[in-house]
UniProtKB/TrEMBL annotation:
Residues 602-795 form the Transketolase-like pyrimidine-binding domain. One of its GO terms (biological process) is tricarboxylic acid cycle. E1 component of the 2-oxoglutarate dehydrogenase (OGDH) complex which catalyzes the decarboxylation of 2-oxoglutarate, the first step in the conversion of 2-oxoglutarate to succinyl-CoA and CO(2). It comes from Aequoribacter fuscus. Its EC number is 1.2.4.2. GO terms for cellular component: cytosol; oxoglutarate dehydrogenase complex. It is an enzyme of class 1 (oxidoreductase). This is 2-oxoglutarate dehydrogenase E1 component. It catalyses: N(6)-[(R)-lipoyl]-L-lysyl-[protein] + 2-oxoglutarate + H(+) = N(6)-[(R)-S(8)-succinyldihydrolipoyl]-L-lysyl-[protein] + CO2. Transmembrane segments: none annotated. Pfam families: 2-oxogl_dehyd_N, E1_dh, OxoGdeHyase_C, Transket_pyr.
Length: 948
């Protein structure tokens, strides 16, 4: 439709000025999807200039100018020849006004692609056509024309195009590149616009603030130079090239403190860690020097310097604040969810619902941020009920190279390493690390955004790596051009000092004094953080004192009064009047009420939930997460009841009385690595209760192997970090194939040493009841790995009585329970898990009287004393067998046979132990039911074959 015909359309339209809002809504719908509007409207809207890019398909354009245009046209009634020329000019102006609005939107959308972000000046930026006047059918002839500024925060309602353009260039194309237009929430977008546009991204900082910035940079550079001269060629993963991180962290901590935060937990990998320890947390340089010189002492294996954690208290404008730097292995981003878990535990302890009192800060490497999948998982957790922490401040220490990999070409498929953060609509502030004032500004914005909206925010600190991946590396081998430039690049500190001297903010002599003063302080070896609190407020700490230095075999009384137990068993299986339940769930609760009355023996689900109830009533908080924990993957738990009419939830364990401890239960996102790391972090910060993660299938814990290897099984030995995390891993050979059978018991057994973890394979509801209670009640905090059953959840033999729960204890070894004469026994079959019940059934079916079955319920620490006691009952013993369902190279055999032999040696009978089970296999289990049954029959027959 041509201009004239469209004009006639408007003149004849029923649209009047009062309906301008309606027209604007049509325009918004058109921007989302052109098919949303009629053909007439679509033809008109398509004539308006639009920004279309391969990255952005939906505009965020303030449409006041468009609305005004519609209103003016709709009021036109009579036209005369004398006004045609004037109206044509007015129409052209109005259309240019729309194009100016589109230009403003283009800068907000894509200005970051034209920003000067690379301190080295090597990064090639693509031409952004959307930022050219010609793209919007404007020209330099329009620069002096005054236009309405719309939502542009420029200080007035109107300005010349030249003024508008200058404002946009200064705001969005300087040393800060902001990505925020992907955020759906209008308030958040306009908050960023206002903060940046009102000061053109360049606040007028006072001379005192600027001198303090230089002082922080001096500290950062001074430490690196000192370490480089004292310990040349020694690995330290220095911060050189990224020194702006130190003033950024200093400001972040002080600003969070001003918002009344009481704790900050920091996670970071190697790069710059020593600098953060000294210049942010206040670790004594003398202690660091001792570690470099091999004079440090460790009570355990210890870890390298750049993995160490630390904590201290800092004074801020809002009061004293506790800083904790998390221990971190070499697996880069894996510390991120650990930090989140630690933060959530601290927030829960403070009843900090908004996350304002405890703040997570995570420092990433650019290559790892783009390459490690756990980053995505951690972002995905950030707004979920079970894992949110009120927003994380992310700092990407962007060296622009990953070890030796050139990032843009090989290390990712996205424009920026931070693009993953867009999945949660986090604003991303790219900033040139050689502009300390720009770094300060985005730091302040990031803290304020987190405080205002309670969501994640990302600072992409674009810098460089002056040395190689480590100080013993020669980087020019693989990045010759980059390192030729770096060789001639002045340091961030020197560049900023020159600027301040040139502007008269300080003198050359004052600058030299700054450098000398820091060097002298460093040599004295005392803490270098002026805000460090010398006598910290201990109430800000997590008190682990009650859980230290306990012997492994510390006794624990897990008994409970029978009447109290029955009362709780009845209480947790009641529902509010009128709560409609699904039929099978109603039957499960009805059966559990019969169990509480003693009319039925207790099954697994009843005993497990009853264990939680007893702990909650006694004041022990319980947190249980995993992919299906509310119902239970195998439909046995039903701790969360679903209203069948309105889908509301009812959790009986949260209604035991006002004096009960908190019970937290959440079905998690489909993640193992990040969720397990989160729960580890939580458990290392919450010693008083029970923290449990349940895998959907035990096999799926494979996806979290890094967490198991680097934290759960080794954290205490490396870092002296206690942790009482419980892992429930469904395990059992049911003919379901190689991916639904094995929780990889052998991997945990291989990792067992120095009494680092507990590995249990309970076979009765009473056992799981006492095992869970033992984990919380006794003040010994060791990770508990449970090979949790599947078929036993409903096995008619796997039941217990209320009396066994009330008066029993967790048995490390369960001796023969059938009526077998000890003197008649010639063979003892040792086993663990569900294979016991198959052996038991077949032994009964065959009428065998000379074979005893002994269950080992705790495989590590191995109960040699208890096993020896069980074996002593059989004076005529001539054969001992270990029977397992797992293949020979898996399960417990290789890791535990020496323990069994040691017990037999003490028996003095000269007996050994032989293996019965599946042959060694590369896969965990057979994929065909027929093959599974054949293998199972063979191992049962072999275990029960007649004794000689």
């Amino acid at each position: 439709m041509r201009d004239h015909s469209m004009e006639q359309f408007w003149l004849s339209s029923h649209i009047a000025g009062g309906n301008a809002a309606y027209v604007e809504d049509l325009y918004e719908s058109f921007l989302l999807n052109p098919e949303n509007v009629s053909e007439q409207w679509r033809l008109y809207f398509e004539q308006l200039p639009q920004v279309q890019t391969k990255h952005i398909s939906v505009l965020d354009t303030p449409h006041s100018a468009v609305r005004d245009q519609f209103a003016k046209i709709s009021k036109m009634r009579v036209r005369t020849e004398a006004t045609v020329a004037h109206d044509a000019q007015a129409t052209e102006f109005e259309r240019k006004q729309v194009r100016v609005v589109q230009l403003i939107s283009a800068y907000r959308q894509r200005g970051h692609q034209h920003a000067k972000l690379d301190p080295l000046g090597l990064a090639k930026r693509e031409i952004v056509p959307d930022l050219a006047l010609q793209f919007h059918q404007l020209s330099t002839a329009d620069l002096d024309t005054v236009f309405q500024t719309g939502s542009l925060y420029i200080g007035s309602d109107s300005a010349t195009l030249g003024e508008i353009l200058h404002s946009l260039e200064s705001t969005y194309c300087g040393t800060i590149g902001a990505e925020f237009m992907h955020i759906v929430d209008t308030d958040e977008r306009h908050w960023v616009m206002q903060r940046m546009e009102s000061v053109r991204s360049r606040p007028d900082y006072s001379a005192a603030v600027r001198r303090q910035l230089l002082s922080e940079l001096t500290k950062a550079e001074g430490l690196e130079k000192s370490l480089g001269s004292k310990y040349p060629g020694t690995k330290r993963f220095g911060l050189e090239g990224g020194e702006s991180l130190i003033p950024a962290l200093t400001e972040m901590i002080q600003r969070c403190g001003a918002y009344r935060a009481k704790e900050i937990v920091i996670g970071m990998a190697h790069r710059g860690r020593l600098n953060v320890l000294i210049n942010i947390l206040g670790k004594k340089p003398s202690e660091l020097f001792a570690e470099f010189e091999g004079r440090a002492s460790y009570q355990s294996s210890g870890d390298v310097k750049y993995h160490q954690g630390f904590s201290s208290n800092i004074m801020t404008p809002g009061g004293e604040l506790h800083l904790a730097l998390a221990f971190n292995p070499s697996h880069l981003e894996i510390v991120s969810p650990v930090v989140e878990g630690s933060v959530r535990a601290r927030q829960d302890r403070r009843d900090d619902k908004t996350g304002s009192m405890v703040v997570p800060i995570v420092i990433h490497g650019d290559a790892a941020f783009a390459g490690q999948g756990v980053v995505m998982e951690t972002f995905q957790m950030s707004q979920t009920r079970a894992y949110k922490t009120g927003g994380t401040i992310h700092i990407v220490l962007n060296n622009q190279v990953g070890f030796t990999t050139s990032l843009r070409e090989d290390a990712r498929s996205t424009e920026y390493c931070t693009d993953i953060a867009k999945m949660v609509q986090a604003p991303i502030f790219h900033v040139n690390g050689d502009d300390p004032e720009a770094v300060l500004f985005v730091t302040q914005m990031a803290v304020d955004y987190r405080n205002e909206f309670g969501k994640d925010v990302v600072i992409d600190l674009v810098c460089y790596r002056r040395r190689g991946h480590n100080e013993a590396d020669e980087p020019s081998v693989t990045q010759p051009v980059m390192y030729a430039q770096i060789k001639n690049q002045e340091t961030t500190r020197d560049l900023y000092a020159k600027k301040l001297i040139a502007e008269g903010v300080l003198t050359q002599e004052q600058d030299s004094d700054l450098v000398s003063a820091y060097r002298e302080s460093l040599e004295r070896g005392e803490p270098l953080v002026s805000s460090l609190v010398s006598e910290p407020n201990t109430s800000l700490f997590v008190d682990w004192t009650p859980y230290l230095n306990h012997p492994w075999d510390l006794p624990s009384d897990t008994r409970i009064d029978l009447q109290t137990l029955q009362s709780l068993a009845h209480e947790i299986n009641q529902t509010p009047e009128g709560l409609p339940l699904q039929r099978q769930v109603g039957k499960i609760l009805e059966d559990r009420r019969k169990m509480a009355a003693g009319a039925l023996p207790l099954n697994w689900g009843a005993a497990e939930t009853l264990a939680y109830a007893t702990l909650l009533k006694a004041g022990y908080p319980v947190r249980l997460t995993g992919q299906d924990v509310g119902r239970g993957t195998f439909s046995h738990r039903h701790a969360v009841l679903h209203n069948q009419k309105d889908a509301s939830l009812y959790v009986p364990l949260q209604h035991l009385g006002q004096d009960q401890a908190p019970f937290t239960i959440h079905d998690s996102l489909l993640s193992e690595e990040a969720v397990l790391a989160f729960e580890y972090g939580y458990a290392t910060t919450a010693p008083t209760g029970l923290v449990i993660w349940e895998a959907q299938f035990g096999d799926f814990a494979n996806g979290a192997q890094v967490v198991i290897d680097q934290f759960i099984t080794s954290g205490e030995h490396k870092w002296s970090r206690l942790c009482g995390l419980t892992m429930l891993l469904p395990h059992g050979y049911e003919g379901q194939g190689p991916e639904h059978s094995s929780a990889r018991l052998e991997r945990f057994m291989q990792l067992c040493a120095e009494k680092n973890i507990q590995v249990c394979i309970p076979t009765t509801p009473a056992q799981v009841f006492h095992m869970i209670r033992r984990q919380a009640i006794r003040p010994l905090r060791k990770p508990l790995i449970v090979m949790s059953p599947k078929s036993l959840l409903r096995h008619k033999e796997a039941v217990s009585t209320l009396e066994e729960l009330a008066n029993g204890q967790f048995q490390l070894v369960i001796p023969e329970v059938d009526n077998v004469s000890p003197k008649a026994v010639r063979r003892v079959v040792l086993c663990a898990g569900k294979v016991y019940y198959e052996l038991l059934a077949e032994r009964r079916a065959r009428g065998i009287k000379d074979i005893a079955l002994v269950r080992i319920e705790q495989m590590y620490p191995f109960p040699e004393r208890e096993l020896l006691s069980a074996l002593k009952e059989y004076p005529n013993l001539s054969d001992v067998v270990w029977c397992q369902e797992e293949p020979m190279n898996q399960g417990c055999w290789y890791a535990s046979q020496h323990h069994m032999r040691r017990a037999l040696d003490q028996l003095g009978s000269g007996l050994g132990v032989r293996y019965v089970g599946r042959e060694a296999s590369a896969a965990p289990a057979a994929g065909y039911m027929a093959l599974h049954l054949k293998q199972q029959e063979a191992l049962i027959n072999q275990a029960l074959e007649p004794t000689q």
